[in-house]
Automatic annotation (TrEMBL):
NCBIfam families hit by this protein: aroA
Organism the protein comes from: Psittacicella melopsittaci
Protein name per its UniProtKB record: 3-phosphoshikimate 1-carboxyvinyltransferase
Domain Enolpyruvate transferase: 13-437
Function: Catalyzes the transfer of the enolpyruvyl moiety of phosphoenolpyruvate (PEP) to the 5-hydroxyl of shikimate-3-phosphate (S3P) to produce enolpyruvyl shikimate-3-phosphate and inorganic phosphate.
Amino acid sequence: MEKLTLKSSPLAHGTITIPGSKSLSNRLLLLSALAKGTTKVTNLLKSDDVYWMLKALETLGIKYQVNESQDQALVEGNGGIFTLDGKYDLFLGNAGTAFRPLIAALAFNRGDAEFTIHGEPRMHERPVGDLVDALNAIGCEIEYLNEKGYAPLRIVTKKDNKSLDPISINIPGNISSQFLTSILMVAPVIGTQVTINLTSELVSKPYIDITLNCMQKFNVEVEQLEAYKKYVIKPQSYLSPEKVIVEGDASSASYFLLAGAIGGDVTVQGIDMTSTQGDKNFVYALEAMGAKISFGEGFIRAQKNTELEQQTGYPLKAVDLNLNHIPDAAMGIAIAALFCPPGSKTIIRDIYNWRVKETDRLAAMANELKAVGAQVVEGEDYLEVVAPEKLKAAEIKTYNDHRMAMCFSLVSLNKQGVEVTILDPKCTSKTFPTYFTEFNKIHGK
Ligand SMILES: O=C(O)C1=C[C@@H](OP(=O)(O)O)[C@@H](O)[C@H](O)C1
Ligand SMILES: C=C(OP(=O)(O)O)C(=O)O
């Protein structure tokens, strides 16, 4: 297995331009496909997750051109819901933002078709049952091909068998916000009014703001009767805005901001605090840990709190926070905990759904934090990390999880001379193939 050893240096200085957002890229591609007109999507993320969405759209007959550097796509919209006949096989890697949104989009296809959708082994362990069951309850035909509640799936659709009566969909929100995103994105083009009721507390709420914001860019309005609980969507068409720009990825930005907070001064460009991406709010968790945050148009900057470091000997201080709203960036706070005074305890709460992501992230984080010397309590839905006196050099298992690799790279910012080895560093290709090249630009500077 490939490995990458990072020498320790407590310094991180510089400016990084963050590649496009995965969440925005895949939403904007799907909406461009469902829209009337042609859309130029610029600053598209070039990564595995976006590749799988593009591949799927191609299989579904959507015509598009991608430029040579693969950061721009010109998509010819279908002018509404898919109207496909025939058999289709879609492999979607481990891209939740392709897999979940396409389930509802295909379930409402208006044609005599059969879609088989599958992905990497881990995608078959990530739940989709709440979404599938909610759609089947209103007459869709989605079958589990293997284990109930999980992919692979077969979706069968028939021409003209959809009634035009208003639809009311009940769906739990506590496992993944991507289920609600999936239904929201297809709802306007089904041809009838759709009401969505969340039957349990929604996780990862800001991702719904991203979804609604993208839909608005395509001229569609959703009535929010109760925020994150009840939505009504009238029949509408997505109208291409002709050009949409993908903002930099706020989750990708979080690693560099954390590096600045530990190692000196790092600015990320291509994202700012006006973004709809909830992971921008990672900066408030960093601020609570003592970091100095500033921002303006097109950038966010994180600096080390040198007064705090003079007082305590450490750049950060421990926190106890509920980070349900920033599930991806929150993993960085578990790493930040290592840079707090020895013996101090950081607690991250309400993060049960870390367990159903690229790996069981609560277990993976706990294992690897222990490997570098921290004391860890892995709760069912929380993580406690006690900063160690001395870090240990370790080979970090990354569990085919890009965020494990990116998070643990930051352990190399220690001033104890302890190096860190990242196993399978190329797993960052899911959302950030150039991560280690960018990290090298600031680390040790
Ligand atoms: O809709 C999205 O773009 C995402 C939603 C989140 O998932 P959950 O809603 O499953 O927490 C997040 O973790 C994922 O990386 C991207
Ligand atoms: C959970 C993630 O991805 P996905 O979109 O596959 O859910 C992630 O990127 O951290």
